[in-house]
């Protein structure tokens, strides 16, 4: 497309129409019609309008170079020097341009003509770029004078100005959906937003008072879930383009305190009319300067001025009755219990009693911005950019948690659980510091109230939203902390609270017997059963898995419990014959020791055979084994030492020896094998069984229909014999 006679600095498509606008150093702005180009390259349709058919049939008017696809529709001349940037309005027939003449010009166009509307003057150097605000009647421009300027589209007057010390600005862009802008300068890119997006709001019992984007005061009823019509208009508060910062409500006097950051902080005291018929302008307004203003009693409020580091206690006539000097460096004040204030400094939070005129408590925590009280006023959450600190009402530290992304808001559940929101999550925190995710968010919201499964919140458009959550996770953990086993059992039976996270949590907190109720995987159930000493479940899972390592671990645990019948079974599964023999010796089971001796003989294992013969006191068997091995001296000594003279003589004769040729050690009288005093092998050792936890007792009572269950933990089958050993023939 030809027409400009100097460098073209910028070109933009129209968001909806077949138009292009361009800016050039030839001091002109041109609007191009590209409808012919679009029709030329669009897919043909069977039903063309008469005008389209006529346009395709007749040759289009060509420019001086013969181009018929895109033609100049308007030429806008008004800049005295080169034009650097131009942009269409997203919805209105408006154009804005910025040039080297330091001017930002506004143009309007119709179907037949375009003309200059007005000029925004204020830049001291070349205006580099400009654009329309995507959602508000504002123009933004940047320039080589190192400033970003915001203009009122309707009045064409400067609203705000931001300046960098060293860097010139060259380009600016708007995010298509959220309230973010990016400006490029000499050393980088700066991303910023023009206004605070947190709606000013306050809660009183079952009502939420908040200020909309149109600066109207509204009320939302949590019980009826209805939104009231506008009750007041606060358009005249502060600047037209700067939203209110905070809102405080006095129910007794039906009055509100609204603060705005305009002019280093201003506040207004307004009474809400009893019969609100719409967004009426307030009449009796009390104004003043202050960074923050909150009610501290029925007929008084506190105003904090950060520049003077002073707090004034005022009555409802706006007269100062008392002045407080907060700690040096105080950045804000927060609401405390009736008659008290919080002083927020960069490193501490101070609780101040207004009546006693003294500091009551202090807590070291940095960067606190918001103070959120629990419903019973026993705990307070102190929110900073990335941290949540929970303290008692006397500022005794309870817990602290850290988030990697910004914390936006918080509120308390009726059960004493803190819910807080980040940019994309709603999370929870218990008083002991345990925390987790409740749900993800599509958009940033600000929590107001939690009731059951409903979370009441405001979005960035100051619209009330009710989100549904599943509180099962944090309610279960809270019941665990409080040892409320009835509620825990109810949650387990009525919800699908299953997952590795809850199992790991229960293990970490020392409740494997509860974690066992959530698990179906045999390996995990085996591990948990061993941890909580539930041998019945461990045996069942070991039989399912049937792995040598599991039998070994089960045997070790059962031995520690004195459950030798389970130990016997694990040794049999492992075919650990030596340990079995020693177990039978320890329990005095002669019958099974005899069986182990026969098995050893059948296996040809002379070491095991000797051990079993020794355990049994079977001298003949030992002598026979020595003979079979050719160890005749040992056979002779064994026979001689046990008084078997005939057997000893027979061994000597067989080897051609006499008794004089054999040197014997001095031997005493042979001793007998000790007799079994008590047949302990008939039952497990009488050790005290581990008592069931409160949760296990409740669970067993449920399973048995309310009957009490003995605390056996793996000892109920004590009379049952162990499995018979299978021997390979």
Automatic annotation (TrEMBL):
Residues 215-459 form the COPA/B second beta-propeller domain. Keywords: Cytoplasm, ER-Golgi transport, Golgi apparatus, Membrane, Protein transport, Repeat, Transport, WD repeat. It is a peripheral membrane protein. Pfam families: B-prop_COPA_B_2nd, TPR_COPA_B, WD40. Residues 701-729 are annotated as: Disordered. It is found in: Cytoplasm; Golgi apparatus membrane. The keyword Repeat applies. Its main location: cytoplasm. The keyword Protein transport applies. GO terms for biological process: endoplasmic reticulum to Golgi vesicle-mediated transport; intra-Golgi vesicle-mediated transport; intracellular protein transport; retrograde vesicle-mediated transport, Golgi to endoplasmic reticulum. GO terms for cellular component: COPI vesicle coat; Golgi membrane. SMART domains: WD40. WD repeats lie at residues 1-42, 76-117, 120-161. It comes from the Eukaryota. Residues 487-643 form the COPA/B TPR domain. One of its GO terms (molecular function) is structural molecule activity. This is Coatomer subunit alpha. It comes from Emydomyces testavorans. The lineage of its organism: Eukaryota, Fungi, Dikarya, Ascomycota, Pezizomycotina.
């Amino acid at each position: 497309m030809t027409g400009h006679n100097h460098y073209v600095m910028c070109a933009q498509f129209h968001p909806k129409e077949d138009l292009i606008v361009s800016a050039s150093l030839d001091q002109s702005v041109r609007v191009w019609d590209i409808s012919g180009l679009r029709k030329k390259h669009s897919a043909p349709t069977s039903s063309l309008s008469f005008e389209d058919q006529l346009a395709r049939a007749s040759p289009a008017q060509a420019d001086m170079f013969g181009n018929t696809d895109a033609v100049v529709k308007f030429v806008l001349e008004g800049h005295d020097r080169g034009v650097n940037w131009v942009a269409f309005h997203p919805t209105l027939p408006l154009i804005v341009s910025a040039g080297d003449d330091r001017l930002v010009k506004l143009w309007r166009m119709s179907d037949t003509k375009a003309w200059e509307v007005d000029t925004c003057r204020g830049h001291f150097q070349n205006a580099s770029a400009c654009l329309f605000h995507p959602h508000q009647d504002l123009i933004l421009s940047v320039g080589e004078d190192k400033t970003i300027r915001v203009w009122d589209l309707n009045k064409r007057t400067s609203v705000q100005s931001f300046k960098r010390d060293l860097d010139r600005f060259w380009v600016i862009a708007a995010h298509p959906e959220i309230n973010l802008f990016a400006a490029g300068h000499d050393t980088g890119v700066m991303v910023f937003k023009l206004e605070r997006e947190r709606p000013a709001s306050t809660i009183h019992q079952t009502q939420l008072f908040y200020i909309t984007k149109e600066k109207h005061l509204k009320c939302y009823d949590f019980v009826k879930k209805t939104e009231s019509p506008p009750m007041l208009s606060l358009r005249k508060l502060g600047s037209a383009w700067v939203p209110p910062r905070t809102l405080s409500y006095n129910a007794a006097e039906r009055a509100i305190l609204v603060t705005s950051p305009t002019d280093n902080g201003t506040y207004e005291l307004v009474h809400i009319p009893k019969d609100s018929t719409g967004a009426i302008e307030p009449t009796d307004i009390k104004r003043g300067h202050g960074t923050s203003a909150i009610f501290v009693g029925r007929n008084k409020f506190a105003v904090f001025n950060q520049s003077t580091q002073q707090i004034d206690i005022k009555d409802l006539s706006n007269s100062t009755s008392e002045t407080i000097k907060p700690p040096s460096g105080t950045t804000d004040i927060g609401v405390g219990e009736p008659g008290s204030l919080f002083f927020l400094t960069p490193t501490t939070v101070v609780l101040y009693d207004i009546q006693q005129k003294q500091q009551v408590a202090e807590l070291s925590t940095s960067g606190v911005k918001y103070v959120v009280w629990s419903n019973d006023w026993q705990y307070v959450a102190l929110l900073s950019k990335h941290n949540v600190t929970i303290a008692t009402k006397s500022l005794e530290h309870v817990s602290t948690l850290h988030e990697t992304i910004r914390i936006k808001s918080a509120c308390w559940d009726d059960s004493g659980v803190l819910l807080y929101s980040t940019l994309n999550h709603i999370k929870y925190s218990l008083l002991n510091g345990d925390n987790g995710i409740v749900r993800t968010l599509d958009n940033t919201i600000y929590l107001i109230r939690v009731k059951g499964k409903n979370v009441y919140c405001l979005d960035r458009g100051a619209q009330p939203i009710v989100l549904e959550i599943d509180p099962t996770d944090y309610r279960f953990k809270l019941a665990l902390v409080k040892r409320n086993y009835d509620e825990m059992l109810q949650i387990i039976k009525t919800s699908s609270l299953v997952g590795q996270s809850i199992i790991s949590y229960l293990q970490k907190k020392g409740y494997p017997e509860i974690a066992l109720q959530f698990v179906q995987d045999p390996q995990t159930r085996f591990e948990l059963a061993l941890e909580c000493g539930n041998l019945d479940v461990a045996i069942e899972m070991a039989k399912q898995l049937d792995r040598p390592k599991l039998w070994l671990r089960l045997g070790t645990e059962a031995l520690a419990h004195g459950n030798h019948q389970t130990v016997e079974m694990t040794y049999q599964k492992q075919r650990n014959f030596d340990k079995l023999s020693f177990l039978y010796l320890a329990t005095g089971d002669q019958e099974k020791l005899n069986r182990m001796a026969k098995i050893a003989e059948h296996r040809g294992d002379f070491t095991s055979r000797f051990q079993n013969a020794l355990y049994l006191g079977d001298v003949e068997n030992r002598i026979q084994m020595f003979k079979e091995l050719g160890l005749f001296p040992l056979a002779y000594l064994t026979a001689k030492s046990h008084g078997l003279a005939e057997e000893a003589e027979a061994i000597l004769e067989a080897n051609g020896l006499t008794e004089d040729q054999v040197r014997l050690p001095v031997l005493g009288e042979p001793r007998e094998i000790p007799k079994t005093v008590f047949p302990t092998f008939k039952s497990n050792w009488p050790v005290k069984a581990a008592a069931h936890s409160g949760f296990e007792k409740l669970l067993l009572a449920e399973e048995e229909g309310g009957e009490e269950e003995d605390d056996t933990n793996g000892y109920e089958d004590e009379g049952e014999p162990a499995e018979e050993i299978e021997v390979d023939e």
